[in-house]
Amino acid sequence: MSPRPATHIHGLDLLRFVAAMLVVLNHFATYATDQPEVTMDRSLRAYDYLDPFVGIGATGVQIFFVISGFVIAMSAARLSGAAGAMRFALARMTRILPALWLSTAISLVALILCGFDPGPLLARAARSAVLSPIGPYIDGVVWSLVVEAVFYLLIGLAILCWARLPLARIAIALGLASSAFLALLLAATLTGHHGAAALMDRFPFKVFLLHHGVFFAIGMLVWHAMSQPLTPRLRLFLGLFTVMGLIELWLLNQPSTPRAIGSMLVWAAAMGWLLLSIRRPLFASRPGLMRFLGDLSYPIYLNHYTTGMATVFLLHQAGVSGLPSLVLALGVVGLASVGVVLAERRVRARLRPLIWPAVPGQAARPAR
To answer: Which is an annotated GO molecular function term of this record (predicted)?
Structure first.
């Protein structure tokens, strides 16, 4: 690969935004009109014409996992020891939690407006706010943040234990464990052992990075390749993890082969864009816009599911349907997301002077 670029890659901002919108379309395609819920019954859907995005749009999550592996490797590469681990943990907390808390509050209000009992909702909101590995959550996308948090924990422990972080070795170990699991899941699926396949598809196997570890590993190896050429051995591992990532996408979209192929093509295109963004300074003339889109992607991801679903239901209850309903619902999600971006910047600005002096030798600094 080309020499290491500047630490901020504007092409990744756009990729984040596109990945978030893919997930939005995937979920909006399944929202029901009679209840604030998702439905596979196409006759009950609010926007059944978005059905082509079902499954294919969900690929945005796997794109996020690759980006996360890349970005976390980039931010952790020079950290070591207790001070480095603390700096890493605080950076992740200030990056992830403020938007999560704000969006959780918005989701709570949205469901209360739909007539839900606040008591159980508060318990779900609390589990979401602390990224509990045990659901249910107030928002259906929080599971992926729990998976991300476990990946952060893995990297944080590695920073604590090694004086020089062996990112390539961590990526290989994570990718091999995930590849072995996916191979077993593939075998169970192909041989008709549906009970075993259903067991392996349960949430604990996702939490322990067995389902999606290959995607984090790919991102980490791509970062490693920016600083030094990949050895034939690392190229082999990168190829293996890519194949297993495609297999995971195929498994997620069964029994629909067209959707599986579509998901794999979308993910492959995203990986091509990732590599192009690393090699060339894309959108360097519009850094402000790209940063804003990148910042907006996370709140959109957090607010489109429960808040979007509730908005669709309330609009249909008010007699608004069809394209006007879709435009208004997306507008509500967009406004909520912009509000979260602006509010979380204030929250971060207040948190930084309080928490960064606690890190030995570290001045207050932003967490990206």
So the answer is: acyltransferase activity, transferring groups other than amino-acyl groups
Q: What are phi and psi of 139, to 5 degrees?
A: -135, 135
The neighbouring-strand residues paired with 45 are 32
d(CA 75, CA 155): 11
Q: Is the pLDDT of residue 10 over 70?
A: yes
Q: Which of 273, 247, 272, 274 is nearest to 261 (CA)?
A: 247
pTM > 0.90? yes
Does 136 score more than 60 pLDDT?
Answer: yes
Q: What does the block give as tokens for 13?
A: 């901002």
Is residue 31 within 8 Å of residue 45, measured between CB atoms? Answer: yes
Q: What is the pLDDT of residues 254-268, one digit of tens each?
A: 888 899 999 999 999
In angstroms and rounded to an integer, the radius of gyration of the C-alpha atoms of the chain is: 21
* Tokens coding 211: 């389902």
Task: Name residue 4's amino acid.
Answer: R
With CA atoms as reference, report the closest residue to 364 among 101, 91, 96.
91
> For residues 1 and 158, what is the distance between their CA atoms, to the nearest angstrom?
26
Nearest C-alpha neighbor of 155 from the set 221, 77, 223: 77
- The DSSP output letter for 356 is G
Q: What is the pLDDT of residues 199-217, one digit of tens each?
A: 999 999 999 999 999 999 9
Joined tokens for residue 347: 């929250």
Bridge partners, 31 (sequence order): 38
Does residue 74 have a pLDDT over 70? yes
Residue 161 pLDDT greater than 80, yes or no: yes
HEC string of 60-124? Answer: HHHHHHHHHHHHHHHHHCCCCHHHHHHHHHHHHHHHHHHHHHHHHHHHHHHHHHCCCCHHHHHHH
Going by the DSSP 8-state scheme, the letter that residue 281 receives in this structure is -
Q: How far is CA 340 from CA 235, 337, 344, 349, in A?
A: 40, 5, 6, 14
Between CA 131 and CA 137 the distance in angstroms is 9
Exposed, middle or buried: residue 265 (CB in 10 Å: 0-12, 13-18, 19+)?
A: middle
| pLDDT tens, residue by residue, 182-193 | 999 999 999 999
Count of CB atoms within 10 A of residue 9's CB? 23
Helix (H, G, I), strand (E, B) or coil at 38: strand
CB atoms < 10 A from the CB of 163, how many? 8
Amino acid at 70: F
